[in-house]
Amino acid sequence: LRENKLSAYMDKMKELSMLSLICSCFYSQPHPTVCEYDDMEVKQLDKRASGQSFEVILKSPTELSAESPSLTSPPRKKDLSMDELQKRLEAAEERRKIQEAQVLKQLAEKREHEKEVLHKAIEDNNNFSRMAEEKLNYKMGLSKEIRDAHLAALRERLREKELHAAGVRRNKEQREEISG
Q1: Beta bridge partners of 56
Q2: Of the residues 71, 80, 130, 143, which has the fewest C-beta atoms closer than 10 A?
Q3: Residue 131 C-alpha from the chain's centroid
Q4: What is the DSSP pairing of strand 54-58 with strand 40-44?
Q5: Which SS3 state, helix, strand or coil, does residue 68 take?
Q6: Do the beta carbons of residue 39 and residue 58 sit within 8 Å?
Q7: Measured in Å, how far apart are the chain's first and last C-alpha atoms?
């Protein structure tokens, strides 16, 4: 019923704007600014440069004809007996308990999920720490090996220089003995 009225209003508005356009083309004198229909009144407002504007006033249901359906009050509820009230209270209590159990279950699931997430974060952190420590130990070991190799090479060069210096001293002593 409402959809029919709404579509009827839309059709009337289209007709009204078309009628206004046609009338303004044929008649130079202004046409009436108020049009009345069964259930609404349309007033033309001041013309603007951008077009025309209208005010649509819907009539209240009391002003409509007697043919329109009247609204009736909802049926009254019958008086409830004590047993029925008790049953309803028990049913409400049961629903409350079920809802409370569901809420507790959801909270428990949420806590369990939080524990799992926390456990995974701790595990990931421990894995990262272990990997970082292993990497650091590897680098330190490699650095120590390189340093030890470098020191060994320096010692070897120093030993060779000492041997060479000893050889040079011996040669010098031998030359001094021969020349001297």
Answers
A1: 42
A2: 71
A3: 35
A4: antiparallel
A5: coil
A6: yes
A7: 142
Q: What is the pLDDT of residue 98?
A: 96
pLDDT at residue 4, as a whole number: 74
pLDDT of residue 74: 61
Q: Are the C-beta atoms of residues 51 and 8 closer than 8 Å to each other? A: no
Distance CA 42, CA 13 (A): 9
- CA dist 71 and 78 (Å) reads 21
Per-residue pLDDT, 73: 60
Residue type at 170 in one-letter notation = R
Q: How far apart are CA 22 and CA 16, in angstroms?
A: 10
Strand partners, 48: 51
What average pLDDT is seen over the chain? 81
Nearest CA among 80, 56, 74 for reference residue 5: 56
pLDDT in tens, 27-42: 555 555 566 666 777 7
Exposure string over 60-82, b if 16+ CB within 10 A, otherwise e: eeeeeeeeeeeeeeeeeeeeeee
CA distance 161 to 155: 10
Q: What is the mean pLDDT of residues 136-163?
A: 96
How many angstroms separate the CA atoms of 140 and 146, rounded?
10
Q: Which two tokens stand for residue 64?
A: 């409509």
Token duo for residue 6: 């709404």
